[in-house]
Design a protein that fits this description.
The protein has 12 helices and 7 strands. The structure holds S-adenosylmethionine. S-adenosylmethionine (SAM) binds next to helix 1.
């Protein structure tokens, strides 16, 4: 394993070992994605189509509960992550689906999985941790079936970030607002000027796919979801999402100030 990937694994194992309240998280997760209000997840829901007996691969799954949506709707889900600790927690989260899940400890740049195998690939807050994105996107294209779709959600680098970085306090607040953690790879990228990803950083990989869409999402939603942590299904957040969607439809030029993006890659 490359040194930096080894450091990344140590970092994430340590993070997930610290994770407490896992029972509370599992309890809460039971209703998640049934009526969750996060715009990026709603965008994915709109595009996945029928899930029964579909093969889904989650990459960099961590201890996320979003994958329960695929399982509850009848799909088979393979979970992969660099961190062994994350996979231990993921086994607990998905225990009621144990005939429909598999777990693989592996780096996302080279997965021990067959060609043309998956209908859907899902990665939330993973892309900015990937050091060799070229190998990564080649892997995604290899793993997807013809017509299969990959969804990646990550932090979008808004144009003002470079100015904000000159003001340390503001920059600290900006980093806190990002839905991502600072791991060794991330730290290295930030040092080299990458704070979140730009459309042009990602568009260079579009040749691996037949269709490639970069959708900017979440204007103020991300702030409210921090405030309403644990109450993700609240009516207030639903209202915020509807208002935000309308607002971004009416003034599309504001999308360049969104906090996150959804990448949809079709093979
Ligand atoms: C910010 S966490 C996101 C976890 C989860 N997807 C979520 O939304 O809660 C990033 C995850 O990516 C994993 N990861 C980081 N680098 C990786 C790599 N090169 N290959 C596979 N997984 C990686 C970490 O172990 C961690 O679980």
């Amino acid at each position: 394993m490359e040194k930096v990937v080894r450091e990344e694994k140590i970092y994430w194992d340590k993070q997930f070992r610290k994770e407490r309240n896992i029972n509370k998280k599992i309890e809460r997760s039971k209703s998640q994605w049934d009526n969750i209000n996060f715009p990026e997840l709603l965008e994915i829901k709109k595009r996945v189509g029928k899930l029964k007996d579909r093969r889904v691969l989650s990459i960099g799954c961590g201890t996320s509960v979003y994958e329960l949506f695929f399982l509850k709707n009848g799909a088979f889900v393979d979970f992969s992550d660099l961190s062994t600790e994350a996979l231990k927690v993921q086994r607990k989260i998905t225990k009621e689906f144990k005939n429909k899940v598999n777990f693989f400890q592996s780096s996302a740049e080279k997965l021990p999985l067959p060609n043309n195998h998956y209908d859907i690939i899902f990665g939330y807050a993973l892309l900015h941790h990937i050091e060799d994105r070229n190998s990564f996107f080649r892997e995604i294209s290899r793993l997807l079936k013809g017509g299969g779709i990959a969804f990646f959600v990550d932090s979008y680098r808004i144009p003002m970030t470079d100015y904000v970085k000159r003001l340390p306090l503001l920059y600290k607040i900006y980093r806190k607002m990002q839905p991502v953690s600072i791991s060794p790879v991330d730290e290295e990228l930030v040092k080299h000027g990458e704070h979140g990803l730009r459309e042009k950083d990602i568009n260079i990989y579009k040749n691996f796919f037949t269709s490639f869409k970069f959708i900017k999402i979440c204007f103020w939603n991300i702030i409210f979801r921090k405030i309403f942590r644990g109450k993700e299904n609240s009516i207030f957040l639903k209202f915020i999402t509807i208002v935000e969607n309308t607002f971004l439809k009416l003034i599309p030029s504001l999308k360049k100030y969104c906090n996150i993006f959804l990448l949809v890659c079709k093979k």
